[in-house]
Structure formats: structure tokens, C-alpha cells
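Q: How do we represent a protein-ligand complex in a form that can be generated cell by cell?
A: Start from the inputs.
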Amino acid sequence: MRTQLQHKIDNKTKPTGALGQLEAIALQVGLIQQTLSPVIKQPTILVFAADHGLADEKISPYPKDVTWQMAMNFVAGGAAISVFCRQNDIQLKVIDAGVDYDFPADSPIIPAKIARGSRNMRQEPAMSLEECEKAMASGREFVKAEADKGCNTIGFGEMGIGNTSPSSLLMHRFTGLPIETCTGAGAGMHGEQLTYKQQVLKEISEKYDPQSPLETLATFGGLEIAMMVGAMLEAKAQGMILLIDGFIATAALLTACQFDASTLDNALFCHQSEEKGHRLLLEHLKANPILQLGMRLGEGTGAAVALPVIQSALAFLNEMASFEDAGVSKE
Ligand SMILES: Cc1cc2ncn([C@H]3O[C@H](COP(=O)(O)O)[C@@H](O)[C@H]3O)c2cc1C
Ligand SMILES: O=C(O)c1cccnc1
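Then emit the C-alpha cells for the protein with alpha-ribazole-5'-phosphate bound:
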């Protein structure tokens, strides 16, 4: 299939390699779908939202209430992710993985609370193994339901004040890079505030020594991250395209790869976030991000913005004339 896809790409009416990374995307998606004519069907972004006990330690400049307030904003249509999904015809679903708030019963936010937030990991592991497994299983169910309806492309988004911290800890643990290298400003911790955040995370990383991927995720993760990890593993199992957003989603993917290394094969890295650590995390995964726009938001926004580029890659593969079709002379 790889040889056939490469042959099809090289026979399009263009100099060899002239569509650059679009060619790599077309090849990868063809391999994922095992076809010379890949298509994106019912693209969907799942945004997993949860709170973090660690937010009590002031590791984010914003208050915890922003988590539920932004989740409401997502479904009301006013957030960045709402706008970009509307613009690009992407179905948006917001899942309450563990927000410390009771959403109104008539809200379109999908209830799947495992707990009212993870625990403060400066004191105790963020989740029990049972909670972590429950979150992962729930993430799998959501993706399976989308696959059953005919969706073949899933973007992963998140909302959770404090969630760059668990992401940094997971990156540190699974890459072996120093915690300072893995820890950045998040929603806006600069200067002394960032130094403080790095100190807190260093203290936490030295407090525990989890062994298995599950134990590591339960200790240092968060409910939305665990649900996202399960969702990514199921998306790979279903042969779907995984649209990976920024730092947090990439940390979740790195975690998913500890459970099933082949998850990486189906992942498209939509952008390189400004968040410190994301560049090195992408390098660790040998990933070539599609966009570099200086974004540092999360929510799945990088995935939503990159989808049209991926669609262009499939459009050239499916619709461009070959040298033979167009009667154009080859070198
Ligand atoms: C208004 C607002 C909207 C957001 N949308 C995504 N995030 C992003 O910021 C948070 C992570 O940064 P930290 O670890 O520093 O808290 C996550 O919720 C992430 O999705 C937001 C943050 C804020 C404040
Ligand atoms: O890259 C991200 O996902 C990110 C960066 C900063 C804050 N929130 C998310």
C-alpha cells in the first residue's frame, strides 16, 4: 500500500515532492485507511473537561471556576473551539469527565463525571487506579459510539484549569526530560510564578515512583486526560484518524503510546503550541506538526484549524490529474 500510494502521489501533475508536507499527510492517511482514495467522514472533536485538585496550589493564574464557565461557553457557541468547529463543519461534543460543578440538566454538556475533580497530587495521587480505569473506559465508549455512527476522524480537546501541570509531569515521566524543561506558562504563569510552578511539580515528581503506565497516569494525570487517553486508544483500535491538538493532547497521546505504541501511527500532529515543552515533546515522538501559529490555547483549537489543510492533502490525492491523465510530459 505504501508503494502504491507513493506512486499515485508521484504521478500527480507536479514536480516530485512539490506538495511538501501535504504529501506526507496524504500518505499517512492512505496508510491509516488502507486505501488509495482516503476520505474524512463526520469529523468530530471531543472536548473532555475536568477539574484538578492541584489547582488549590495556585499553579494556574486562573480560578478553577473557569473550567465549568468555559464548558458552558463551548456549548453556547462562544469559545474559540466553538467558532472554528462551526467554520469547518466539525461536530463538537463537550464531555464532563469530572468538573466540580453541577451543570443544568438541560445543558448539552454530556455527563460522564468520574469524580468532582482529581485530588491534589501534592498530597495524594490524583486518581485511584479504579477512577483512572473508569475514565479510560468511558473515553473508549464515546469514541466507539462515534465510530458506530460513521465518523472516521476524531480530534481531541480539553478544558481543565491546571491541566498543563499533569501534562508536564506525564511528559517528564515518559520522556525522562527534566521537569523544568517540561513545564511552561500554561494559561499565563511567567517569571517567578513559573519558577514556583516548576518547584511544585519537581516536589510532586520526587514524591512518587509509579511503575506501570496506568499507575503513572493515575498518580500524575487528571480525569479529562485519562478519558482522552482511553478515547485515543479506541480511536486507534477503530482505525480512525486522530487529530492531536497542543501540549495537553500530545501529553495524552504520549501516555496512550505507553499502553499501545502503534497509536502513534494514526496520529496527525495538528500544530506546535507555544507552550514550553511542546516542541521537545513533538521531537521525542518524531512528529512533524502541520501548523505553527504561536497558538497556546488547547480546547482542540489546533485540530479544528488544521482540518482544512488535511482535507487539502486528501483532495489533491483524490482529484488531481496524473501526468498520463493530463497528457503532461514527465522528466
Ligand atoms: C479563559 C480560558 C480559556 C481556556 N481555554 C483553554 N484553556 C487552557 O488553559 C488551561 C491550562 O492552563 P493552566 O494549566 O495554566 O491552567 C486548560 O483549561 C486549557 O484548556 C483556557 C484557559 C483560560 C483561562
Ligand atoms: O498547547 C496547549 O494545549 C495549551 C497551552 C497552554 C494552555 N493550554 C493549553
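Residues 2-37+318-326 form one domain. The mean pLDDT is 98.
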